[in-house]
Amino acid sequence: MSSIQEKQQVLIDDFDFIEEWMDKYNHIIEMGKSMTTLSEEEKEEDLLVKGCQSKVWLKAEKKGDNVVFKADADAIIAKGIVAMLIDVFSDQPAKEVAHADLSFLEKMGLKDHLSPTRANGLMSMITQMKYYALVFAG
Amino acid sequence: MAYNVHDIRAQFPILNQTIHGHPLVYLDNAATSQKPLAVINAISDYYLNYNANVHRGVHTLSQRATDGMESVREQVRAHINAKEAAEIIFTRGITDSINTIAFGLSSIVKKGQNVVITEMEHHSNIVPWQMLCERTGAELRYFPVNAQGELVINDVDTIIDEDTAVVSFNHISNALGTINPVQLLLKKAQSVGAWTLVDGAQSGPHAMVDVQDWGVDFFTLSSHKMYGPTGLGILYGKRERLEALPPYQGGGEMIETVTMEKSSYAGIPHKFEAGTPHIEGIIGFGAALTFVNELGIENIAAHEAELLAYAVEQCSPIEGFRIIGDSMHKASVLSFVVDGTHPYDLGVLLDQQGVAIRTGQHCTQPIMDAFCVTGTARASFALYNTKEEVDLFKAALEKAVNMLK
Predict the structure, then answer these.
(1) How many domains is chain A built from?
(2) How far apart are the CA of B183 and the nearest CA of chain A, in angstroms?
(3) What's the CA gap between B15 and B25, in Å, rounded?
């Protein structure tokens, strides 16, 4: 099992390797398409992440010391972005998720490239993940 | 004079840039239009040469600024054929215009009466009336919309009745592009003595309006959608209707005398223009009106209609492409979905290819619900758009759809 930092580095390298932003988006979309999503029943109103332009549901479960995330979104790019975050943060120690460094987003160029509203949506997703992790870490 | 779109584009320097390495294709004109050099220069000229506060000053600059502002009032009067310039009020925008009227009607509209709007209104022509109804106990009614995105007006006589106090609707829908049967609705509203308001947000840049011919009580325009500066709206009101309403906001400019106990209000239009007006915006809007009228609104509308028809023809073969609102009477708005894709995703991927469109609900949640869509993608055309841009838009859309499906 790779650590959060190792996972982040993989993402940074992947994004660095892809030159064109259209292709980076394609990569995000593919991650969205291959993500394990929530069933219709699981998509409860209170799982919706506030501050996203499209609907994003985020679910967290405690597994030992780890926190496991599941998510879904009605737009594929949002789904891809949340899939990316799940890849990094899911099934990791809750304590580490809660205090994880987020500079990888800048290193990926993602924060600069997203429009301010979408960057806010991304931050809302991460804030929600960290919040769950903080609660589970006790 | 032939309509030369390439000469026209030269008047809009902002269009000449690349976005993410692609030439900018700006198709978000229903949200706001770009500004020609004439407008930018008029604003610079004002600040470089005659910036001063209006109306109060005896000095030369103040008089020049006042003359500049008041000559635009006259220009707007002529543009919509109002009877007198005093019937033209400068507001902060259409939202401000409609709130001014809805607030003013608070003590006039009574419980037991009703206010009639339509299902395809912008939130700015819904919420102020809901608030008026909450204050007064009046009932809010609306004309529904059919599958083509047209108003269903068969039962106009049951919706607008003897108890109808206000009828307010848009001339052209921002979400669908539908041109509404203004005169028919106004005639019915007038026959029961209702106050009438037409929201011209989308018609201003595409259609000539004669307010006296319509006989409408209030008509409102948005400067920034008509190639003018942001932060400025126009509210036309018939003199007797405006005089019957109390002012919306108190402050400077709108008073005649002030003692510590009581103030008396100025006459129209000043009664509704509290505070220092948006002088630069007004001056800029004057230049925008001149620009538009020199090209001719009919010529502009014909050019845009050609682009819209071409875009429909080009995009229709794309699998899953569905137009939301395909009325026979439409103006320059292509609102659509592509089945199996989300409008936000289309918007992001078009932007990556330099194409600016709008996605979402367009501040018209009720009509999106009526069409059972969470939102649409909307391309809207203006006087400077070209067929080549429609081609770029179509190619970008195809690429986006291929990536998303």
Answers:
(1) 1
(2) 38
(3) 8
Q: Give the integer Cα–Cα distance in Å for B107 and A118.
A: 44
- Give the pLDDT confidence score for residue B219 in this predicted structure: 98
pLDDT at B77: 98
pLDDT per position in chain A (138 positions), as tens? 689 999 999 999 999 999 988 999 999 999 999 999 999 999 999 999 987 778 899 999 999 999 999 999 999 999 999 999 999 999 999 999 999 998 888 888 877 777 777 778 888 999 999 999 999 987
CB A124 within 8 A of CB A50: yes
**CATH for B40-293?**
3.40.640.10
A9 shares contact with chain B (CB less than 8 Å) = no
Cβ of B352 within 8 Å of Cβ of A22? The answer is yes
Domain CATH code at residue A88: 3.90.1010.10
User: Structural domain of residue A116, as residue ranges?
Assistant: 4-137
B138 Cα to chain A: minimum distance (Å)? 33
Q: Chain A interface, mutation test: which of B18, B28, B338, B348, most A Cβ atoms within 10 Å?
A: B348
A76·B345 Cβ contact <8 A: yes
DSSP strand pairing (B321-323 vs B233-237): unpaired
In what side-by-side order are the strands of the sheet with A92-93? A56-63, A66-73, A92-93
- Give the A:B interface size as CB pairs under 8 Å: 36
For the question of residue B363 being annotated catalytic, the response is yes
Could A53 and B360 be called an inter-chain contact, meaning their C-beta atoms sit closer than 8 Å?
yes
Query: Which homologous superfamily does the CATH classification assign to the domain defined by B5-30+296-404?
Result: Aspartate Aminotransferase, domain 1 (3.90.1150.10)
A74:B342 CB<8 A: yes
Q: How far apart are CA B257 and CA B267, in angstroms?
A: 12
Which of A26, A75, A115 is opposite residue B342, by nearest beta carbon? A75
Of B217, B223, B232, B201, the residue nearest B91 (C-alpha)? B232
Surface of A (118-137) touching B: CB under 8 A: 118
The residue extents of the domains of chain B are: 5-30+296-404, 40-293
Q: Which of A21, A76, A118 has the highest number of chain B CBs within 10 A, making it the mutation to test binding with B?
A: A76
Tokens 């160029």 label which residue?
Answer: A109
For each successive 10 residues of chain B (405 residues), what is the average pLDDT?
90 97 97 98 98 90 96 98 98 97 97 97 97 98 95 94 98 94 97 98 94 98 98 98 94 86 90 95 98 96 96 97 93 94 94 94 85 90 98 98 94
Furthest-apart CA atoms within chain B: distance in Å? 70
- CB distance B344–A29 less than 8 Å? no
Distances (CA, A) of B210 to B70, B168, B216, B236: 20, 17, 9, 11
Identify the pLDDT of residue A73. Answer: 93
Least CB-CB distance to B352: which of A25, A54, A76? A25
